[in-house]
């Protein structure tokens, strides 16, 4: 799937806009439009419901974005949350040191009287055999030696911009959970293992943002810190190692459960040499994005690193009392950490289909109904018949109390269906002449409407009184279309 096609659909239909576009846009920031905000809300809502509300071993938290600056010293972010960067002395462009060799490079070749060539990453020049030593973009400047660049956004708390009031926009939501570990423990009397979840904004001054909403400087995370007693064992294995594998499977199953094909997901375990300073083992779930397999989310075993660091820097004990063993333990922490925006991008990419229907191209987003921004579209077949329009509005108002429902009469029915397919609306409901009848001709209506399903494009004829029950079964009780549809007569397409 081509990312440009998706970016253009997202703009055209109001999912995602470039931030501050009328001013030329800001680097790597995006705004969610009317449909995007519904989709994003649904991603967060089902995640929260599945991982927090439905589980007995999870609670939630919403910590502030601005925190005490010592948090970031204790966590290691002030010292280690850096990327090694090199700068071009000519054009002043900046690159990640570990990525320059993976870029195509510009070369002015002496052997061909200084002609300019763009050469594939890692390849030598065919004419002179030279390899890249200069800036890959301008081909002229020397690159500086690598320098560490901190990815945290700095800001000042209070009226005076001085060192003492310096703080940071959080680069991850995790630390808000660690510093509240004892508060949550005291308030909820939890026993290990248990987890704390948080959804919220995070900020990173990424050097190479890009690929639409894949890597941005402002994004949202859905994170869980799951606290485990390191002395426990499950099936003969240390509990943290056993539960780490359980979390990896549960996270993967969550994505496939909402429509991501398992063929597009893959696990990647970080080699020991590349593990973050806090991690005993980290496994990423990769997704096959248009630019290649890339991290969708990470699941790290952070050991007792964070709680010990915060105990050291704050002087407060961050332990749990094990009644059975009569000892204080510092729990190990498993961290499933997902980006809301990256998850949303994967759901969009996986839902996108181009199909041929009656010799015409149909674009359809096959969203899981739980994620679809709009669940039902009410469409009148004839706009000029006031009874049809009135009945349509009445149905929209009634259904909108339970499900996101829109009314649209701005085009002919075929086009209205296509528009809903393109934004992934699972069901359309049509009010037509048969529904309301024709009083002038003395014809009574049959009081039935047509319900059309997005993927099969099948249509059934349903009495208005049964509409709420039908949608309740389809959208709330998880009934399949096939099961519901067989109870009603088919309507002609
Ligand atoms: P990457 O290697 O892609 O930079 P990371 O390993 O630094 O990611 P984590 O710190 O593990 O990422 O963050 C957890 C999750 O948060 C990521 O898997 C991703 O879904 C999301 N995320 C991280 N950075 C960004 C970003 N700049 N833009 C959008 N989402 C992000």
How would you describe this structure to a colleague?
The protein is α+β, with helices and mostly antiparallel strands and 493 residues long. It has three domains: 259 residues, BirA Bifunctional Protein, domain 2 (2-Layer Sandwich), CATH 3.30.930.10; 69 residues, no CATH class; 112 residues, Anticodon-binding domain (Rossmann fold, 3-Layer(aba) Sandwich), CATH 3.40.50. It contains 14 helices and 29 strands. A seven-stranded mixed sheet has the order 3-11-12-20-17-16-15. A five-stranded mixed sheet has the order 24-23-25-28-29, sandwiched between helices. A hairpin with a 2-residue loop joins strand 13 and strand 14. The chain is globular. The mean pLDDT is 95. The structure holds adenosine-5'-triphosphate. Adenosine-5'-triphosphate binds next to strand 12, strand 17, strand 20 and helix 9.
